[in-house]
Amino acid sequence: MKGLALVERDEVMLERTGALENRRFHIVDAGGRRYNQLRNGALVQIRQEYDGDRLALHFPDGTTADGLVALGEEIATDFYGRPVTGRVVEGPWSRALSQWAGRELTLVQAEPGAAVDRGRGHVSMVSRASLDELGRQAGHEAPVDGRRFRMLFELDGCEPHEEDTWVKRHVRIGEALVRIRGDVGRCAITTQNPDSGVPDFDTLRTLKAYRPETANEKGKKHLPFGVYGEVVESGKVALSDDVHAVELSLLERTA
Length: 255
Fold this sequence. Notes:
- The relative contact order is 0.17.
- The protein has 255 residues and is mainly beta.
- It has helices at residues 93-101, 128-138, 203-210, 250-254; strands at 11-15, 18-19, 25-29, 47-50, 54-58, 64-68, 70-79, 82-90, 105-110, 123-127, 153-155, 170-173, 176-185, 214-215, 221-222, 224-233, 235-238, 243-246.
- The strands form five sheets. A six-stranded mixed sheet has the order 11-10-16-13-12-18.
- The chain is 13% helix and 37% strand.
- The protein has two domains: 11-110, no CATH class; 123-254, PK beta-barrel domain-like (M1 Pyruvate Kinase, Domain 3).
């Protein structure tokens, strides 16, 4: 679910729509606008469990909203100018979220791969070397927690920002093949502590001091950190799998 505490996995199945069951749910307010960490950083304090039929939300006060997922009316949500159609989730979750936040909220389920931040961007990755470099630039002694950036994969064995060199190339990750489409522009969510949601590290100022701005596919400038892409070949990705850029033939690239 978008915005809540991250769930770590030892392996995931990458389909053409991204990691199976990733980002199937999002939250909207009474006006139908997305309700995310920019509006309430404390969302990361809510833990989630989902097995495809049953959803449980565990709140910081010890209460739990749990049950089988049932879908109601259709609803459209704006994702950065792109309408995403979903269905209202019927059950205890919207009421529990509303009581916790002190405002009316609704839980929505989208189709697989629909509720992503950028079109054709179902996979994201960053190297731990890049996280270490960010910490070094900020003068931190401890490593930067990668959860700040909410990436699908964190990679070992790279040079700092090596993943930037993969843009417009294909990368084999485990059994899957991903085409890297661009870098990820960062926002103020990355300044928030990944456990509490309280801002405690000015990531944006640090990035601006040593990373040049780039532009997204719409030409808008941003501060890059990590990369995103689309799944070209489905496959399983497990902890410790190899990750490397591959060169495809012209025939393979146009297939």
